[in-house]
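Exercise (ungraded).
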Amino acid sequence: MSSSETPLTAEVHTALEIAKRGCDELIVERDFAQKLARSQSTGQPLRIKLGLDPTAPDIHLGHTVVLNKMRQLQDLGHTVIFLIGDFTSTIGDPSGRNSTRPPLTPEQVKDNAKTYYDQAHLVLDPSRTEVRYNSEWCDQLGSRGMIQLASRYTVARMMERDDFTKRFQSHTPISVHEFLYPLLQGYDSVQLKADLELGGTDQKFNLLVGRELQKEYGQEQQCILTMPLLVGTDGVEKMSKSKGNYIGITESANSMFGKLMSISDTLMWSYYELLSFKSLDEIAGLRQQIENGTNPRDVKVALAQEIITRFHSAQAADEALRDFEARFRHGEIPQDLPEISVNGAPLGIVKLLREAGLAQSNSEANRSIDQGGVRVDGTRIEDKGLALEAGTYVVQVGKRRFAKVTVN
Amino acid sequence: MSSSETPLTAEVHTALEIAKRGCDELIVERDFAQKLARSQSTGQPLRIKLGLDPTAPDIHLGHTVVLNKMRQLQDLGHTVIFLIGDFTSTIGDPSGRNSTRPPLTPEQVKDNAKTYYDQAHLVLDPSRTEVRYNSEWCDQLGSRGMIQLASRYTVARMMERDDFTKRFQSHTPISVHEFLYPLLQGYDSVQLKADLELGGTDQKFNLLVGRELQKEYGQEQQCILTMPLLVGTDGVEKMSKSKGNYIGITESANSMFGKLMSISDTLMWSYYELLSFKSLDEIAGLRQQIENGTNPRDVKVALAQEIITRFHSAQAADEALRDFEARFRHGEIPQDLPEISVNGAPLGIVKLLREAGLAQSNSEANRSIDQGGVRVDGTRIEDKGLALEAGTYVVQVGKRRFAKVTVN
């Protein structure tokens, strides 16, 4: 595009800043700026692709990082294409090695996609969202088309994908069909004539395949925008259902509130950047308020209120806040505790507090016990050598932090 | 099969010896013996697969090594399946890197297959030959079937194929679709329920894929029989049209005769083993005759006669012999010279004689010149330092050996 670059207007600069907020990488920024400029001058919205694997339809806040970015781009006038990968999910894992990927029936795919879509629409603007199923063109490829598609990419480039490199080196089997899946995902971009594809940082390789294939097919290449993976409530690992550190978007307002209030003050800023729709200027203002003496708790409350309003309502957010404050005042155990699982029974109380995210360090855990602030099932703990057998306990630290902890 | 092995009859032992004659490898011999035994007791012929790439329909003696083995197995009562790989040859090389593999039209495939089949039937028994086209099942696979097929094999095992290993290590591109071709060839064996697949030693990897896939699909595994690649008339490289060291099966009787008489006495035994239908006992008898004083030339004449009879007629073979003998007697330059190409103009006469196969070594070439036995275009050569510019020359060594040599 360098030969005939359109000069960028102030609006395009602003749109570019919105697109880049919180992102990990935008490839290629200069090309994307040109796409934005062209869209502005022609009035033709950009086509922004989001691929969805319809095997696990439950959305947590980690998934919404990308959805939020989609929404921001929709608000700039662009079209989101919600691409449902039904072709591969109705095949499942044909090698049979991955028992967690059974083939889905077309009905299951439709049900899962609907569940996902209903949830996603708490974030997305339905009037600027197209839904497509990739079986539409993947089945039409046929066996000849599949060979022709596979001829567009080399084994060496495929091997550059991080997980393939590692598995090949460690002699963990890679089935040949696994090389076809990134190509099919890239072929979706060709069929959709996508201008931009979004994904988590772990999707970068696959998103780049789309760029390459569009070039092979003589199209203008899509840009790619990767978003960081949201860290879970434990402040350590990426948010994931299997890690128990997630906040589901259909959880009750009280549960969301409790979990959001339990995150560290540091993690709060990452959540503001990736989950809040407040502008970066507003967020900078909040940082300034804390420096001027505002309690970080109040800023965390504002974040929890914004998110609960999005997924429930402003009223539910207010009720959750009142409920939370009542607990502080009356020292009651709240009804709706965050549930946390930890391993290693019998587990020492200090380690348990740390692993459950109720203390940030061993010394903080020790200090809380010394100050008489730790209770297990209502009993104050004085013995720092206490080990808990497998079972479920209500653990309280100070007046505010509660969790239902299952020791395995 | 080990749990219920059928004892082998004398007939099965004989059949096994015929199958193994001249072969490079039979995998797995014990299983093949059981297949032969079962076929004998049930009267059900074995299904023997020969894959044919219908891009180059002209057959030379090198190709007939495998065809001869097929014929021997037909004579034992088994069925040959002549499998025409039209599916892949109508795709060509979709990566566009190999310009020598343009996609063929279905008509070109049919024409080439017919040409090949007509020639092959000079060796094969038509009444025990089935012809099949693999597009029959490969097109039916569809894109889903292709993915399922690809899931049956790992990248690591595919990389074990010698040429893939070398190309990957030397950074020579391998397109992903090249991993699909051996799988399709193996899938042909599944569809054909082949008992045995034949090929050159260079096909061993692909033939083994067929064994693996049959197992994956719950079938009894085919055995594989690889035949060595026939060395060309130069005694050095494998017979190949591009090397100019070949004998085409549609060449004239005189040309065949001349070329066969030009091979070395050592190479003659390899040709006897791989090209003659004489029994191994008869061939041992011929060796004995030479030890007892018979001129090797007479044994070579017998080989030439057998081969010309197969591809022309007994009468043509006799005429070629008479013509050849007349040339010896009268010192005439024969009409129908073998044509040989050599590179490296200007080329020294000694090197030319060796490379053209007119002398087995430098010392033999030197000796022939010293004895006044070498003529170029009729002129006796005395200067061993003579270098020949690019061009075509009639070169004669002694009374019997003539060739039209093109120096490039």
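Further reading is listed at the end of the chapter. For now, observe: The longest helix of chain A spans residues 314-330. Residues 358 and 397 of chain A are 7 Å apart (CA to CA).
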